[in-house]
Amino acid sequence: MIPDFVTVGGTVLEWILTAHDQANSRACGGNSFYSAVGAHIWSDRVGVITHAGSDYPQSFLRDFADAGIDIRGVSRIDEPHRLLFIVQYNDHGDRRSFTPEAVADWGKHTPEQLEKYLVPPASPMMFEGSSKYDAMPDEVPADFWKAKAFHEAPMRFKAQRAFAEALHARGIPFTLDSSGRGAPAGEFLKVLQQVPVFLPSETDVADLLGDVKPEDAVRQLSAMGPQVVSMKLGRQGSLVYDRRTGRSHRVPVYPTYAKDPTGAGDSYCGGFLVGWLETGDAFEAALRGTVSSSFVVEYFDARHALRVTRQEAERRLNRLRAIATRI
What we know:
Blueprint: E1 5-8, E2 12-17, E3 23-29, H1 31-40, E4 46-52, H2 58-66, E5 70-76, E6 84-89, E7 95-97, H3 111-114, E8 149-152, H4 157-170, E9 174-176, H5 187-192, E10 197-198, H6 202-209, H7 214-223, E11 228-232, E12 238-242, E13 247-251, H8 264-279, H9 282-296, H10 310-324
Parallel strand pairs: 1-4, 1-8, 2-6, 4-5, 8-9, 9-10, 10-11
Antiparallel strand pairs: 2-3, 6-7, 11-12, 12-13
Helix pairs in contact: 1-8, 1-9, 8-9, 9-10
């Protein structure tokens, strides 16, 4: 099977503590897998490109393969998996990050045990670790280049730029989720000129534009190159703008119980990718992305949403469309 949709990004092991003191350890995560799951809810032809450490559980990869996701683009590296996502959420969905040493006390997870492992808010934990975790275009299985579209999840800038240039040169549509943090001055804006669809978070937009209203931000970002910009707004849903029509739409979150918000934005991107290619409509793409994220947040681990049926997804889509068109 040649995948129609391919996601590329990172792979992590997760330690999650929810606002209601529920804990989960060594779960399957990473933006490559969450975005693949978000796409898989709407398509049976999804592939993933990422790197995993030598001890990354084979059972995790087997679950994706059994669900029909093409994992030929998952490469093992010759060291134990070092990319860990260790966080605690509050009632508003904000999170605090911890150093890897917190894993030893995670089963206790009392404030006294964990405070000493806190990462200062200004310290970037994303993308830390060996550059061995960066997939590059020359590793892509040859038939993956026949896919209809790719999604680039946040990665180190070198890998991000390499994939954007490779996809642009081949004329393959793609979506990008990143602010280019860590890129040399002005270099990310050069990449953005090649991006058809940009899916930044509020934090990404603040990095790029400062304090700008979402309605103005999506138009400013689109003027830099992307035809479509969808700004992810957390609990406020998303704001999607299409330069072709000059119209923007607000899409609320789907009403569900969010047990673990990890991967919500990544799964949104995967659903958006499929919706955009299959409908050509930015609003419909945002609806599908929102539905994808609604399933992912209902439990721990990226894999649980692999069980979602198309019928369940369509029911939520119809309900969300009715809500969103009234905004």
